[in-house]
Amino acid sequence: MFSIVNRPTRGTNILDRIYVSDPCYETVKVVTSTVRSDHKAIIAYTGQQRLPLNKRKERRTYRRRSPAQHARFLEYASQLNIELTSDADMQTNFDTVYAIMYDLLDHFYPDREITVTSSDPHFVTPTVKAMLRRKNRLMRAGRTDEASALANRIQKAITRSSSRWLRKIDTKQSPKLAWEKVREVTRGRRRGDNVQVPDGITAPVLNDYFAAISTDNNYQPPDPKLSTGTDGHPSQ
Q: Which segments of 85-124 does DSSP mark as H helices, in order?
């Protein structure tokens, strides 16, 4: 059994889960609930991919960092010898060292690309999203120990991101601003986000969309349970 939910469902925590023994769902989404709740709703289905409305995608670059990469870099750096010419000026030597550092960065921590969307919380950075995807792959492969270790790294990364986000907030001097930040986290929406409704989006269109993803055409209602006889006495 493993959980197919890999995104926070309440704040920064994954409290709502769906456990399966086989990967029977092709798509799993965490969306804002239609009822009044601070928990997100989970939609798991198989079939045609349905594109969320008002969702913007963007390709972002990041540098993956792992303990194995750190180990390889430290091993190489321990034997690295940078030679500078004594007759060169300070700027030339600085440029030389800077170029070497960039080459090392690109070699051991190359640039990668990942897609982020406007529906991602502020703490889901490209690095965090890449780790979440890798954790999901590890869980599907049954490598739970590696996935658990990666989950700890994800939690620390989210904590650091949230700390930086709230670092300049003084709860004593500006409690109003602090509460605004809290509401942004609990509501999953940042101040200043401009939501533009595309042409043709109306209430019936939205109703048909959510009805389609929430309806099981193969559902068969169960037969009613007969608990009493026609004479008012319990049936045998």
A: 90-108
- Do 115 and 55 contact (CB within 8 A), yes or no? no
Q: Which residues contact 234 (CB under 8 A, 6 or more apart)?
A: 227, 228
**Long-range residue pairs from 185-191, CB within 8 A, at least 24 positions apart, any chain:** 185/11, 185/12, 185/121, 186/11, 186/38, 188/32, 188/40, 188/121, 190/122
**How are beta strands 57-63 and 111-117 bridged, if at all?**
antiparallel
Q: What would the DSSP string read from start to end of 156-186?
A: HHHHHHHHHHHTT--TTT-HHHHHHHHHHHH
Stated as kind and residue range, the H or E segment containing 43 is strand 40-45
Compute the distance between CA of residue 6 and CA of residue 164 in angstroms, rounded to an integer: 23
Give me the residues of the chain with pLDDT under 50, please.
189-194
Within 13 Å, how many C-alpha atoms sit on residue 113's CB side?
Answer: 4
Among 48, 55, 54, 57, CA closest to 213: 48
pTM listed for this prediction? 0.46
| Mean of the per-residue pLDDT values of the chain | 80
